[in-house]
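Why do we care about 3D structure at all? Because function follows from shape, and shape follows, mostly, from sequence. That is the central idea of this module. The next example makes it concrete: a single protein chain, its amino acid sequence, and then its structure expressed as tokens.
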Amino acid sequence: MRGWILYRFNLDDLPPDKYEIKQFVAQAETMGIELTVVKPEQIDIIVTRDDRKSILVDGKVTPLPDFLLPRMGSGTTYYALAIIRHLERLGVTVINSSTAIEAVRDKLYTQQILAASNLPVPKTMLARFPVNVDLVQKRLGFPVVVKTLSGSHGSGVYLSENRENFDDIVTLLNSTKPDANIILQEFIASSHGQDLRVIVVGGRVVASMRRYSTDGNFKANVSRGGGAEVYEINREIELLALEATRILELDIAGVDLLFDGDHFRICEVNSSPGFIGMERAYDGKVNIAEEVYRYAQVRLGQFEKTKTAVVETVAQ
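And the structure:
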């Protein structure tokens, strides 16, 4: 089985802190998968009827992979999406699809899709300048969460405690990022400094952890120094994570849930979830890269062949 990972770096210039890519590479070697990590800048696509020669890597015609694993998340550019779409057209198994990736990189659109399916989400409002502060206070109240429409690992997310602080944050964003699209989101007090990250692979919840702040910050990202612990998956958590993933048509997802009293609301859904905190919380008992590759094998029909071969060997 031959696969590509589409990422911002290739292996030659991969920074040392990119845990997930390294895990994918190591697991591929363990499972005998021929894996190549490529970045969009290495790829040229040519729209032609000769599919065999319609994609080049480093200027050379290259055999197509059996599967593609996009790992650019919210940083997926138009060019990267064009590459993913092209490989889909050529019959490559892509995990996740270009349509799903494009939908979830827009946080407002994600909320619109989930709300339309009657799933619990925080009240969300698209901001426009000048912002009507009275309307924000009436509809969402303070504190209120301010987010840019794209971003990951907690970047572009701010908590505004009151009207005065809100004015400062919005003014700063407008002056430093005048083209940024901003959404305002209801603050769920019971989830202050904590949330749940649930990882779904191939229609199955494989792991869940509670992330918590260790410094009093309202954000709980492990990548920013927060803590993490395994959290028992109950029926509500499972249903919310699976339904969100299914509705957004994702094969792999990181679903972030907010604590809402005794229940939960869906905060965000990520198409390229990090999992260093998850694997550490599970003390190595969960291997996300292996789960993804097992799913790829099923999609390619190779898992069943392996299973059949094992059964035949036992029978003999």
